[in-house]
Amino acid sequence: MIEHYTDPDRALRFFVLRSDSSLSWQANKFLLAGISVIALTIAGAFMMMGLWLILPFSGLEVAALWVMMYAVKLRQRAQEVLRVSDYDIVVQRGRHLPEHELKFPRHWTRLVVRQGPTELHPKRLYLRCYGQETEVGCALGPHDRDTLIHELAATITPIFMRSPAANRTSVAADERL
Question: 0.85 cut: is pTM over it?
Answer without folding.
Answer: no
